[in-house]
Design a protein that fits this description.
TIM Barrel; DUF72 domain-containing protein; UPF0759_sf; nine-stranded parallel beta sheet; alpha/beta; about 280 residues; DUF72
Length: about 280
């Protein structure tokens, strides 16, 4: 039983000098982030497959129990839609191999056009990975959330290979109109889908989007607090990623979420202590 928490990235301009030292060499940024959180979304791998040396550097900067949820390249999920992807998948799996057990799941984020008719394709793709890699799938086609038959078919396909369904909860974000530039930008880009709170495996993964106001973010995650506590008591080990439109306070909010869960599940292991940020000096 373990709760991992994290953010959408491990470096952000607004964290520099406040949460993380500044300046900080690129090869040290993940190490300092890992003092705040014990998981991270691997969004960068969607745009470019890293080199093995880069993955080895990520491994060297993190403890063995740190977890990456690494997103498959867009050529696999969005351009080729999981067909004829042997070459890019081999390159990707070879590239992330140095991370070893730190790879919590391969994150299969599918485009909104990938609908119920495409589920057999998803099933074939997942079966090829099921013997060696754990997968977690994020779908954005509305039918999976509004049509019970489509949802059941997807759940059956995922359960057959012990794959998880990742919900991206934006319901709290879309409750009220945006009030900042970052919120206005997110308003046009983030998916607006019904809430889903069902776990299929013993390691559920949740992506939660709050608001730029930390108190509103905290108020919006209360349902996930209850669900996460229940999952832990059932023996599951969830991973929860906390997003806000500007992500300025995402690491502190992720720790706050972990603290609130741990207050209700005292046996939960604590997070690591952040590496201190040295005060700025003139000399």
């Amino acid at each position: 039983m373990r709760l991992h928490v994290g953010c959408a990235m491990w470096t952000h301009r607004s964290w520099q000098g406040r949460l993380l030292p500044h300046p900080l060499p690129a090869q040290e940024r993940l190490r300092h982030y890992a003092g705040w959180c014990d998981a991270v979304e691997g969004n960068t791998t969607f745009y470019a497959t890293p080199s093995r040396d880069t993955s080895a550097s990520w491994a060297a900067q993190t403890d063995p129990d740190f977890r990456f949820v690494v997103k498959l390249p867009k050529v696999v999920t969005h351009e080729r839609r999981l067909t004829e992807v042997n070459v890019p998948m081999r390159a990707f799996l070879d590239a992330v191999e140095p991370l070893g057990p730190r790879v919590h799941a391969l994150w299969v984020q599918l485009p909104g056009s990938f609908g119920p008719a495409d589920v057999p394709t998803l099933g074939r793709f997942l079966r090829r990975l099921s013997g060696t890699h754990r997968c977690a799938v994020e779908v954005r086609h509305p039918a999976f959330f509004t049509d019970p038959g489509s949802a059941r078919e997807l759940e059956t396909t995922l359960a057959a290979v012990d794959a998880e369904w990742i919900p991206f909860d934006t319901t709290a974000f879309f409750t009220d109109p945006p009030t900042s530039d970052a919120e206005r930008d997110a308003w046009t880009k983030k998916p607006r889908l019904p809430l889903r709170t069902v776990a299929l495996t013993d390691r559920p993964i949740v992506r939660y989007l709050g608001r730029d106001d930390p108190e509103r973010t905290i108020a919006g995650w209360q349902r996930w607090l209850d669900i996460t506590v229940d999952w832990l008591r059932e023996g599951r080990s969830p991973t929860v990623f906390i997003h806000t439109p500007d992500n300025a306070d995402a690491p502190t909010l992720a720790r706050r979420f972990h603290d609130e869960v741990r207050a209700r599940v005292p046996g939960l292991a604590p997070l690591p202590e952040p590496i201190p940020v040295a005060p700025t000096t003139l000399f």
